[in-house]
Amino acid sequence: MDRRSFIKLTAVTGTGAALASCGNPENDFIRFIPDEMIVPGVAVWKPGVCSLCPAGCGLTVRVMDADADVVRDGQAGIVRIAAAKKLEGAPDHPVNHGGLCARGQAAIQVTYHPDRITQPLRRTGERGDGLYEAVSWDDALAEIVSRLDALEGAGNQGSLTYLTRVGRSHRAALVRDFLVRFGAPPPVAFEIFGDDVLRRANALSFGREQLPTFDLANAMYVLSFGADFLGTWNSPVAQNVAYGRMRQGRRGVRGAFAQVESRMSQTGASADEWVPVRPGTDGVLALGIAHLLMSTGAYPSDAAGRAGALIEGWAAGLPGYAPEDVERMTGLEAARVEGLARQFSDARPAVAIVGGAPLAHSNGLFTALAVNALNALVGAPGRDGGIFFTPQLDVAAAVQSGSPAQPAVALESLVTEGLAGGASPEVVFVDGANPVFTAPPAWRVREWLEQVPYIVSFGHFLDETSILADLILPDHSSLESWAEALPESGAVMAVASIAPPVMRPLHQTRATPDVLLEVGRMLGTPLALPWETFDELLGASLAGLPSASGSGALADARQAGVWSGELPAGLAVADSADTSPASVPVAFTAPEFDGDADEYPFHFLPYSSNAFLDGSLAHLPWLQEMPDPLTSAMWSSWVEINPVTAERLGISAGDVVEVTSAHGTVRTRVVVSPGIAPDLVAMPAGQGHRTFTRYASGRGENPVELLAPMTDAATGALAWAATRVRVTRVGPPDGRLILFAGSLREHGEEHR
Amino acid sequence: MTHPTGQQITRDLVRPLLLTTWRFYVMIALFGAFVVAGLVAWLSQVYFGFGLSGINWPVFWGFYITNFVFWIGISHAGTLISAILRLVNAGWRRPVTRCAEAITTFALLIGAMFPLIHIGRPWLAFWLIPYPSERLIWPNFRSPLVWDFFAINTYLTGSLLFLLLPMIPDFAVVRDSTTGIRQKIYRVLALGWRGTPKQWHRLESAMQIMAIAIIPVAVSVHTIVSFDFSMAPVPMWQTTIFGPYFVAGAIFSGIAGLIIAMAVLRRLLHLEDYLRPLHFENLGKLMLVMALLWGYFVFNERLVTYYGNGPHEMAVFWRTQRLSFAPLYWTMVVCNFVLPLILLGIRRFRTITGCVIASFGVVIGMWLERYLIIVPSLGAKYLPYSHGTYTPELVEVTITVATFAAMCLLYMLFAKVVPIISIWELKAGEHPSPALIPPATEKHQLGDLHL
Amino acid sequence: MPQWGMAVDLDRCTGCGGCVVACHAENNISTVGDEQAAVGRAKHWLRIERYWEGDFPDVRLKFRPVMCQQCDNAPCEPVCPTYASHHTDDGLNAQVYNRCIGTRYCANACPYNARFFDFFNPSWDKPLQLQLNPDVSLREVGVMEKCTFCVQRIRAAGTQAKAEERDVADGEIQPACVQSCGARALVFGDLENPSSEVSRLSRSPRGSKLLEDTGAQPSVTYLSRLTQV
Amino acid sequence: MKAVYGLYTDGASAQQAVNRLRAAGVVDADITIISGQPMEDQEFGHRDKATWMWWLACLGGLIGMSVGFGLAWITEMSWPMNVGGLPTFAWWPNLIIIFELTMLGSILATVATLVVSALLPGKGGALYDPAVTVEGKILVGVENPSDDAVPELERSLGAPAGALVKMQ
Lengths: 752, 451, 229, 168
Fold this sequence. Notes:
The complex is a heterotetramer of chains A (752), B (451), C (229) and D (168).
Chain B: H1 6-18, H2 22-48, H3 63-74, H4 78-87, H5 97-118, H6 144-164, H7 167-177, H8 180-189, H9 197-230, H10 242-268, H11 277-308, H12 311-321, H13 326-345, H14 352-379, H15 394-417, H16 423-430
Helix pairs in contact in B: 1-16, 2-15, 3-5, 3-10, 3-14, 4-5, 4-9, 5-6, 5-10, 5-15, 6-9, 7-8, 9-10, 10-11, 10-14, 11-13, 12-13, 12-14, 13-14
Chain C: E1 4-9, H1 18-27, H2 34-38, E2 47-53, E3 60-66, E4 85-87, E5 93-95, H3 105-109, E6 115-117, E7 144-146, H4 151-163, H5 176-180, E8 186-190, H6 197-202, E9 207-208, E10 220-223
Parallel strand pairs in C: 1-10
Antiparallel strand pairs in C: 1-8, 2-3, 4-5, 6-7, 9-10
Chain D: E1 3-8, H1 11-23, E2 31-34, H2 53-78, H3 91-119, H4 131-134, E3 138-143, H5 150-158, E4 164-167
Antiparallel strand pairs in D: 1-3, 1-4, 2-3
Helix pairs in contact in D: 1-5, 2-3
C-alpha cells in the first residue's frame, strides 16, 4: 500500500480527538487527518461583552464558518455564515481577567436557542395564550408609532412605562433619554435579588450609590456577611479572580476568609470559618466586632468617620454590643465573636463584605450600614486590600445630550397604585425584564399588566411577562449587535466594555436601541435624538475619553472589547451630593417576619441560583444540566432542609413536600443538607417557569411564589428573606429531583 | 431393575426422533415466541440506541455481562463433566454425557452472543478478530476481552466437536432406522460410518484426546472470564481468587443446569429406564461437593476483604452484606449453599425431586452471584461522588428471558434430531458385562454425608 | 517530548462550575436532557465533586474538580480490545472514538469514573448545532468519551509552534477548563519542563494524586486546601 | 461389488467366525468386521488399534502454539502501542493467546486425523447391513472374494451358532 492510499484510508477513520502525530509517522496508529491534508476552518477571535448579568465581563468570541438554516423574507435556505463558536473570558479585561463563569460560557446558547423569537409577532389569541402571527418590521414599527402618537395626542405621555433590568450601560442611557424626551417616567428596573439597599447604604456611608469593588487579592482577612460573592453576587468572576490571588497568589501569604450566613452558599463552602447566625442579625455581629475593636483602643471610633456616625452609640464604643449581647441576639457564642474580632483586627488588611440575604430583611439598611461602619473603622475604603468604588462614566455628560438620572420608580408602588385605581400605564415596554416571574405574587404584577391596553416586548423569548405582550419586537442577541456594559464594580479603574457585533443576525431581529431610535424619528413629533444608530451614541460617548493607541477610545474598544482608564474630569459620576449624616442614627431593630412563628416554624430563604440567577437563564440547556455546586442537582428544583429537622418531620432525601407560606404553596422535593440551620429552609430561584422555552417550561418550582410583600423599612426594597413557612411531607420521592452525585459524603455513609 | 437390551435401547432412543406430538409444536411455538421477542428487543436496542437498557454511569455493565458469565458458566456442565467422567471411565456417565455436552454447546452459543448484545456498536464487533485489515489494526492482545474471544472460540470449537464426534455412530443408527428424505439427511450426517474396529478405535482415541484437551480449555475459559473482572482495578474485583472461584462456580451451575435438563428429558421423552435415580444421585453428590467448594471460596473472598478493611472494598462489602444489595446477597447464599446442603446432604432428600429443587436454587443463586459481583462493585467504585446504582429495563429483562427460552428451544430441537442419549456408548457400557454399570445399591454410593 | 499534566489548586477552587460548562462548549458534549440525566447518563467530562464533612454548625464542603487524570499507567488502556484507548507519546490517554466498539470496559477499569458513554446518538435542537466546535469530532451512539485535555488545542498550539520553529511556551496551551477558571485553580502544562508552572506546582508539598494507591500514576496533581482559623 | 458375510448376535460367535476365516486362509486385511458398538472384549475388536493420532495431536498443538506466538509477536511489533505502561510484547497476556491456540491446534488436528483416517470413504468399504445398528448384530465378512472361495467362506461364516450368512 502506498502512502497516498494509506492516507486516504486513515482520513476516513476520523476527525478530531486524540492522537499524537509525533515521532515516526509510520508508527502512528491511526492518524486522523494527516498534517498535510488539514484544511481547517479559519478561526477568528473577536471581542464581545457578556450581557447575562450586569457585571460586564469581556469576552473573546471564537468565530468560524458554519452553514446555517435561515429564513429571509419568507425564503428558507442554507447560508454560510461566520458563526460564534465559543465564548471565553477576554484575557486582558480589567474585570474578568480571562475568566468566565458558567453562565457566561452558556451565553452563546441564547443566540442559537431553538425557541428564539425569529421575527416580529403580533398577538392573535387571548393574552397569555401564546398565539401570535408574523408581521413585518414596517407594520410593527408603524403600530408602535401610532400608539405613541396617540398617547402624545392625548397629552398622556406619562403613561408609557418601560420595564427593564438593572444594569448600567449606554443602552440604559439611551432608553432613559428616549423616555425623558418623550415625556415618560424613567424606566422601571426590578430585580428580585437586587442590591438597592446596599447602594443606598453606600451612598449614606461613603457617598457613592453603587456596589463596591473589593481588593480581595491584597486582603489578609475577608469577613463576608451573606454575600455569595464567589457565586452570583455583584461581579463574581472578578471576585473569583481576586479570591484566587488572595488564597495562593502571593508567595508565602494566604488570606483567610470567614463567611457569616445561616445557609451555606457556594461562597460559604470556600470559607475557612463558616459562621451561622440568626436571620437578620448579621449587623449585630458586625457591630459586636466593631465594639471589640474599639474597646481595645487600636481602632478609635472616629476612624469610621461618617459611616460610624450613622450608627447609634458608635461614638460611645457601641456599649450595647458586647459579646454576650451579640450572643443573645445572633445565637453565636461570645467566644466566637471575640475570635472573629481578633482575626479581623490582627490580619491586616481586613475587609468586610455584605450582600444578599442579610440585606433582605426589614432591617436591611441597618445591617448594610453596620458593615460599612466596620469597614470604615479598619480603614478599608480606598486602601489596598479594602474596598473601592469603580469610577463611573457619566453617559449623560459624555454625550452632552443624555438625560440625567432621575429617581427610579419602584415597581411595587407603580403596581399597587395601578391596581388601586390610580394612574395605570397605557403602554408598557418590556425589555429584558420578567417581573411576572420574579416579583412576589402578592404584588399582582400579572393582574396589573393585564389591565394595560398595549404591551410591547423586546425579548428573545416568550416568557411569563412577554406572553402578555401585544407586539413582540425581538432584539438581536448580544453577539449579533453592539454589546456593551459600564460595569458598576469589579475594577479599580473606570471600565466600559464595548464590542461590535461578532456575527450577522441569525434571524429577522433588530437591535432594540436602533428600534427605539427609529421609533423616535418616526413619531409624529420626532424625539430629536441626536444619533442615527446606537453605535453613533457609543462613538459620541467615548469621544471624550483618552485613547491609549491614539486612534480614539471607540477604536480601542472595538479592538479590545473594552476601554479602561482614568476618566477625564466632568465625565465621571460625581459622589453623592448627600454628604451629611443621616438625620437619625440607626440602631438595631429586630427583623420582622411574615407569618406566625407557630404556624410557620421555618424561615424561608430563596437564593439566587448559581445556574439561573433569578430564573432569567433557565432556558439554557447547558445550565440546566450543570450540577448545582452544593447539591449536584440538574434540571430540578428542591428545598434544602437540615438533617435534624428532616428527621423530626419524618422527611427523607428526595421526598415530596409542600412548602407553605401565608401567601402560597409550592410542592417540591427535599435535599437534606447539613449546611443549613435547623430553623431555616432554603430554595433556589430560577426554576418553576410556566412559559420559558422547551427547556424551562413546567420544570421545578419558583420560590418567589411564597414570598410575602415584606420590605426593608428604610428603603422600601423587597425583603425577600423575611417570610416564614411550614413544611409538610406529601409523599415519597417521585424521581423529579435529579442528582448527579451518588453520594455527597466522602467517608462512611455506607457504614451506617 | 432390568437393563434394556441393545435393540430396546435403539428403539427407545430413536423413538423421540420419529414420533412428534402436538405438544412439541406448542412448546416450540411458545419458546420461539420468547426468542422472537428477545430478537425484537435487541434489534430495537440497536436501532434506537443502547440507552434503552438500564446501563448508566457508573454501572456500565449489567444484565448482559451477568448473563454472559452465567451462560458461559452453565456451559461448564457439560464438557467438563463428561470429559472428566470419560477419562476416569465412570460407567454411569454414559446416559448423561450427551445431555451435558449439548448444554455446553448451546450455553456457549448463547453466552457468546452477550458480548455482541452488550457492546455499544455491535456492527463493529468483527474488530475483535485478528484479521489483516488494510489499516493493519490488530486487536489488543493485552485486553482480557480478546483473551475471551480466543478462549471462547477454542472452547466452542472443542465442545462442538466433542459433541459431534460421538454422534456420528448414532447418526448411522438413525440412518438405518429411517427411510426417505430423513434417511438421506442422516446418511450425510453419518459421514460414511459403518462401525469397523478401526473406526471405533479412531473415534475412541479422538474422544480421549479431546477429553484431555477440553478440560484445561474449560478451566481456562472461566478463568479468563474471571479475568474480565480481576484485571480491572475495581473494589472487590481485583483478587487472585477469582480464577478458581469462577471455575468452581461454573461447574456448580453447570451441574445444576444438567440436572434440570435431565429431569425434563426423563419426563418428556420417557427415558425413566435410562436416566435413573442413580444418575441424579451421583450428580447431586457432585453438586454437593461444588456447593461446599463454592462456600469455601466465598468465605475466603469475604474474610480476606473484611480483614483487609480497605475503605473502597468495604464500601462494596457493606453494600452487599448489609445495605442495598443485602436481600439479593443472602438469597444467593441460601440458594447456593443452604439449600443444596440440606437437599443433597441429607440422603432422604437426595431424590430426583430434591436434586431438581436444589438445582433450580443453584441456577438462581449462581445468576445472582454474577450480578452481585458486577453491579455493587461498579456502583460503589472509589470516589463516592460517582457512586450509582442500576435498574434493568424492559429490553434487558426480555433478552434475558429470551435466552432461557432459546436454550429450551435449542434443546428441544436438538432432542428431536439427535438421540439425546448416546446409543452406542450406552450399548458399549451394557454389552461387556452389566456389572460395569454400577447398580444403584447402597454400597456403590460414593459415601454419604450424614449431617 | 512534553508530558502534559495539570495541577488543581483546591485552595483556589470555589466550585463555581465555569469549567464544567466551558468543557461542554469546547468539546461538543451534548446535554442529555432531564430523563436521561435522571438515570445517570449526564456527561460531564469534568465534574466538580463536592463532599460534606461534619454536621451543622461545624460543617464544611469540599470541592474537587475531577476530570480524566491522563494516567501514565492507565488502567483503561490495556483492557480495550481495539486500541481505542491508548497512550500517546506526550502522555495523553487518547480515546479514538472511531475505533471504539463500546465494550465500556475502560470505564469500569477507570478508578475515577472519568469516562462517559453515548447511550444515544447525540443531538442538538436546531440551530444549537451551530455552536459545535469543528475541531472536535461528534461521537456516535455506543462510543466512550472522556476528557482529552483539549487535545485539539494542544495539537493546534504544537502545529503553530512548529511552523514558527520554536517550542510551545509554558501557558501557551490552555484547555477550556483552565482557560475559563477565574480563580486560576487549574494550571496546565508540560511536566517534563522543570520550570513550567505546572511542574513547579506538582512538586508542591501540598500536592497529592487522587487514588494514588491504585497505581495508575495520574498526571493531575491536587494541591490540598488549607485551613487557617 | 459382491461380498459374503455373516451376521452374529454376540461377540463370541463373531470371534469364532473370524477365527474360522483365518483358518480358511483369509488374511486379516480382507476380513471386514462391523459392529454397532466397540467390541473391546473380543480379540477382533482390538484390530487396527495402533494410531499416530496422539502424535498428530501434539503436532497440531505445536503448530497452534507457533501460530499463537507469531500472531502476538508480529502484530504487536508491527504497531507498537503503549497501553497502560505494559511492555509492547507482554508475555503474561500473550501466554493466554498462545495456550488457547495450542489447544485449538491439537483439537483440530485430532478431528482432522479422525476424519481423514477413518471416516472419509476409503478403498472398498461398501459392505454393510443395517441389521448391525437396528438389530445389534455383528457383521463379519469378506469383500470381493474370488468365486471359487465363496462356498468355503460361507461354510466358515455359517459355523457359529445362530449365524446368518448372506451374499451381497
